[in-house]
Amino acid sequence: MSLKDLQTEINRIDDEVLELFQKRMKIAEDIVKYKIQHNILVSESQAERDNLYRVCSACDENMQNYAKILFSTIFDISRTHQNAFVKEYPPVVIEIQNALDNKKELFPQTAYVACQGVEGAYSQIAAEMLFAAPKIEYLNTFEGVFNAVDKGFCQFGVLPIENSTAGSVTNVYELMKKYKFHIVRSVKLRINHVLLAKNGVKIQDIKKIYSHEQALNQCSEFLKNNPQIMVTVCENTAVAAMEVANSDRNDVAALSSRNCAAIYNLSVLSDTIQNSDNNYTRFICISKELQIYSGANKISLMLSLDNKAGKLYSLLTKFSVLNLNLTKLESRPIKGTDFEFMFYFDIDGSVNSEEVLNLIGQISKVDGYFAFLGNYKEL
Fold first, then answer.
1. Which residues contact 366 (CB under 8 A, 6 or more apart)?
2. Given CA atoms 57, 60, 65, 71 in this order, what sign does their dihedral have?
């Protein structure tokens, strides 16, 4: 056969596969409708396992792995389609539907907001980008921010969640899990760390630097090239600037923001100390209650999966079927477990879509931890 003949034959087979696929999906739809009508348990995990064993056993040995991938994907697609007809809503879907029923059109312009740090912190800058006129309460720790919102002292909290250089702020994710809070908005802030010291001090005089661990990571090359400089970790970059301003020493400096130079009467010794000029941090606005505002187009999830082959692939297939774009997929080991991982997902999408809502309901049934962190707009 010529190449053209082979390509024609492939197209003919593809047409047959497509016709059979559509027939299979229709039968899968009829099956789930029958089960619902006759109050039969919808789950088909055992049947799928048996079917997968059957088709792989019938396949040539050198094609078995390919067959497993193909039919596992077909089963996932079929299950996603079937779930659209199942009207048993898990708790997370009911919670989201209630939030949609009470959806607010406009994000508030003013609010009492909790931030970690002191005047001049990047969280303050983020809060002023999120709200036109926020009243800011400064707390010493990230957990202090959660406590302030949890006890009703503040309406919202603003916290860093991810940096383009240093990665996710895992402490914040852990606190989101602990307090079961939700994200209602986020903002991406360009970070420009500078080296601050008292007036008249030169860069060669510096023997000690204060800063937050994230800023230190983002300026690691400068610190590596100056091993004689000691490092002291602070709760916040603005706190670092305040420490320098209040110190009786003239050989200390802070990795902080340019804003803090004016606030704490310090001089900028260098503005080229961070590893990359393309340095951004995402800040989230958290709320105790699930709130969804108009224009929400990003979804954040957190979940754990069994450490079994194909589990993550099966999950990703569900997003692919609905053509949902994953903008973040990150994993972190779960403390106290034997190589179990927590996964963080950011997805472009809206729970106003019934398909997306059904998908979230389906994912929430995983054998492990699941949290819907929010559906929100990112500035």
1. 303, 304, 305, 315
2. negative
Distance between CA 368 and CA 252 in Å, rounded?
48
CATH number of the structural domain 3-83: 1.20.59.10
pTM of the predicted model, to two decimals?
Answer: 0.79
Domain boundaries, the chain: 3-83, 90-104+295-379, 194-270
**SS3 at position 268:** strand
Give DSSP secondary structure letters for 184-234.
EEEEEEE---EEEE-TT--GGG--EEEE-HHHHHHTHHHHHT-TTSEEEE-
Tell which CATH architecture fits domain 194-270. Answer: 3-Layer(aba) Sandwich (3.40)
Distance (Å, whole) CA 295 – CA 266:
41
Strand partners, 378: 186
Tens digits of residue pLDDT in 45-95? 677 788 888 888 888 888 988 888 888 888 888 877 877 777 667 889 889
Q: What is the DSSP letter of 100?
A: H
What residue type is assigned to position 58 of the chain?
A
